[in-house]
Amino acid sequence: MFKLARPKPIFHPAAEPANAHAVLLLHGFTGSPLDLKKLTNFLKSQGFACYVPIYSGHGLGAEAIVKTSMAAWWQDAHNAFDFLHSHGYGKISVVGHSMGGVFALRLAQQYALASVTTLCSPIMKRPVDYLKRRLISYAEEYKKFEQKPALHIAEEVAQFAKSDFSLLQGLSDFTETTGQHLAKTECPVQVLQGELDDACYQDSAALIYDQVGSTVKEIKAYPNSGHMLMLEADHQKVFRDIAGFLKSVK
């Protein structure tokens, strides 16, 4: 048994921020910057400045997540945008995976972003029970990575299942509210979706594409990938498509 180190934020600055195109990359619920590391390195190689924050409670196991809140995660995403802006970047695009894509769309509803790219992002209200099951499953998988004995894992997961999961209502509500204001998203939008992902995410991709107020938008599906689009079979094509879209933004 060993304790996993918490992933750290990633920042690849530009030599001249005022003349650079910065990309804020936002991970998903229960995720971390590690999920976006390969994509970040690729975008860095293409000349983009990149910043990947980590949300409160994330990267430390499910028990740490339930001690935080949806408001804290959104504030972390907002602070990350402010971080880039305060460092002199005027042209900022946001690439978000899953919940990170919801944050990207909400930022676009509030600020003049260069563009938004969503990867397998939900946009419809999701049942809290579904989110609870997902968080419990994450708790079990994290403990396996820690190489805890099976009996200990079963006992700890059973205890975790009794936790207060009220924060998940905040996540569901935030997603629904963002979806109700998609028409306010007027910057260029790219919607990317794995065809092997759950139907709710595929439906959300179509809804985002149809309802954003952007005049420049595209939607692409990848037949050999599921929810972790940036890590699965089609990831190289996904990376090229994201870079190409970012370069097309004026």
Automatic annotation (TrEMBL):
One of its GO terms (cellular component) is membrane. One of its GO terms (molecular function) is carboxylic ester hydrolase activity. The active site is at residues 98, 197, 227. Substrate binds at residues 29, 99. It holds the Pfam family Hydrolase_4. Residues 21-234 form the Serine aminopeptidase S33 domain. This is Serine aminopeptidase S33 domain-containing protein.
